[in-house]
Design goal:
The protein is mainly beta. It contains 6 helices and 23 strands. It is globular, with a radius of gyration of 20 Å. Its EC number is 5.3.1.8.
């Protein structure tokens, strides 16, 4: 099959969500507190469904399970990646994710750890996020958490549109108010909450914290990752390699005309975050617009893109 798999997003209401997913991408969202668009997902907690072609109406996990040839027989029991767009209308909880070993021991055999990365699509002037901490030992980390010394513990970073952050498992982090992000991550929904600003939901309840697990899995001391963005000018596109890791590689394509490209992985995930373009695959032409998400399978060896668009591309 040489056609792309276009996917129907799933939306998640969150206490910190807003309406940017509708305003920016024209999605039909469930409420004014919609925080997450699960754009490409085969996770049990949110299944994308194919919108077109031979597999129309079938969930991505079923396609993955029943048609491994579409994904180059990539060796993983479950689809390995999850692409989201997050609307942080308010601060997210301060949290940390486990690695694969800890997740499989404590959360079940089919749950990955969660290394992720963020591309800042947009943010308010002066916006920031929490990335890392200042504790030097695990005892100091535990003391500062138990004592509520959040201003001393948490490391804040100012951000701008176009910034990129690689967030390995074990990194204390939080998106903050006024931030719109495309997130590429391992296919995991395991989060250990460290601090939630003592806020309550509509029923007056605070959200659960997971302090023992968080202290256990947090990297101490925090270390920043050195990212070296590789840039390549091709006919029709300027391509930036944002990260290449053991879990995923992520690229930004800025299209400025027509270009031809080759499938250089088992399969590739595409998210159009601005503009529009035409994509030609196997002699068929498809219009792609801001807010579209699709997979190019391993059976697509070559494709062309023509337009004025920004696309985030990833593969395992």
């Amino acid at each position: 099959m040489t056609e792309p798999l276009f996917l129907q997003p799933i939306f998640k209401e969150r206490i910190w969500g807003g309406t940017k997913l509708k305003e920016e991408f024209h999605y039909e969202i469930p409420s004014s507190q919609t925080g997450e668009c699960w754009a490409i997902s085969a996770h049990k907690n949110g299944q994308s469904v194919v919108e077109n072609g031979l597999y129309e109406g079938i969930s991505l996990d079923k396609v993955w399970e029943e048609h491994p040839e579409l994904f180059g027989h990539y060796q993983s029991e479950v689809f390995p990646l999850l692409t989201k767009i997050l609307d942080a209308n308010r601060d997210l909880s301060v949290q940390v994710h486990p690695d694969d070993t800890y997740a499989q021991e404590h959360e079940g055999d089919h749950e990955f750890g969660k290394t992720e990365c963020w591309y800042i699509i947009d943010c308010e002037p002066g916006a920031e996020l929490i990335f890392g901490h200042h504790a030097q030992t695990r005892d100091e980390l535990e003391h500062m958490i138990q004592s509520g010394k959040w201003d001393d513990l948490l490391r804040k970073v100012h951000i701008n549109p176009g910034d990129f952050f690689y967030v390995p498992s074990g990194t204390i982090h939080a998106l903050c108010e006024g931030t719109l992000v495309l997130e590429t991550q391992q296919s995991s929904d395991t989060t250990y909450r460290v601090y939630d600003y003592d806020r309550v939901d509509a029923e007056g309840n605070t959200r659960d914290l997971h302090l023992d697990q968080a202290i256990e899995v947090t990297n101490v001391p925090h270390e920043d990752n050195e990212l070296s963005f590789m840039e390549e000018q091709r006919t029709g596109a300027f391509i930036t390699t944002l990260v290449e890791s053991e879990f995923f590689s992520v690229f930004k394509y800025v299209l400025d005309g027509a270009g031809s490209f080759k499938q250089d992985s088992y399969f590739q995930l595409f998210s159009v975050i601005d503009g529009e373009a035409t994509m030609t695959v196997g002699g068929e032409t498809y219009k792609v617009h801001k807010g579209d998400h699709f997979i190019l399978t391993s059976q697509i060896e070559e494709f062309t893109l023509d337009g004025d668009a920004t696309i985030i591309v990833s593969h395992p």
